[in-house]
Amino acid sequence: MALTRLGIGHPVSISLTDIDLLSIKALAEKQGLLAVVLDGYEKYRIHSSRDGASIHSKEVSITEKILLAQWIGEVSQLYEQRYEQYQLAISDLAAFYNTYGLKMMVLKGYACSLDWPMPNHRPCGDIDIWQFGQQKEADAILTREKGIDIDTSHHHHTVFDWQGFMVENHYDFINVHHHKSHAELEMIFKELGKDDSNSIVVNGEKVYLPSPQLHALFLIKHLTLHFSTGELTIRQLLDWAFFVKAHYKEVDWNWLDERIEHLGLKNIYGIINAISVEELGFNSKLFSYVQFEPNLKSRVLNDILSPEFQSETPKDLFRRICFKYRRWKANEWKHQLCYSDSMWSAFWSGVWSHLLKPSSI
Prior knowledge:
Blueprint: H1 2-7, H2 21-30, H3 34-50, H4 62-99, E1 105-107, H5 109-113, E2 127-130, H6 135-146, E3 157-162, E4 165-170, H7 180-192, E5 199-202, E6 205-208, H8 212-228, H9 234-247, H10 253-262, H11 266-278, H12 294-305, H13 317-330, H14 332-338, H15 343-356
Parallel strand pairs: 2-4
Antiparallel strand pairs: 1-2, 3-4, 5-6
Helix pairs in contact: 2-3, 8-9, 8-14, 9-11, 11-12
């Protein structure tokens, strides 16, 4: 965490001796922080050399030098170069839709990266888009004009490949079948999603961005969804913290706090904000609510770094169903933090959700 904090430009006092770079790199990669942690390590080395201090109790070994060289190469190829391809894919897709008068809003990944101090040091994955209720028309034109196959087997979005990236074209912001509370929340997202007053130009093409109000609520809900299944990373916490830093004056925090409390997310919300402040070094004045139980915060942070329930999903259908039930039970404490629905209500909603889309099992 110290190298992460240093990597994003937040000062921290650290002393590293006999460090295991291989383990650090592995954890950084798992957390989506390969570039950020490398930035932190390089800053630490520069600071240490200026102070005349030794980074190790021994000289840096040949093995470590080779590892660092590989690490730098991976950041260049998998982060910086791929981000350029990511931007080009987004602008080309927007250009296609703009030709037909269809607006394209980018959610999550690319929109979040714009708030980072170095956008190309945030890993880029899927391209998530919202087309202001015209997803069906957009998919139909894409199939007709480009011959692209559209995958409709997923909840709340269709999927297709575009220039080497997977695109998720959302017709809903969240899976309304998975929890009863999601239907009410989706109505709020849809209303906020009508706002087309936020946009940027990417390689000469107009690309829409979520309003700060929409993105604030969407990011928090997205964080809690990932946390409840043991898939939350520090990179996603940074998405939230950098968003808050960039858009603090644009968000109606009283409205957001009321929604969060209504959704039963107040405790996890306070913990997310507290980690942003205490572990990642963001200014506490930026966050509307930073209250938490210390033991619970520690458990949440530890689970993000190393989930309590860790096991690979079996390929066999019956074993996979049993696995998901065990994971559901093991994550009961997370459910209490992330949902207002009861566990059994969520269970039957989840069963129904899978029956509607069997490929999601």
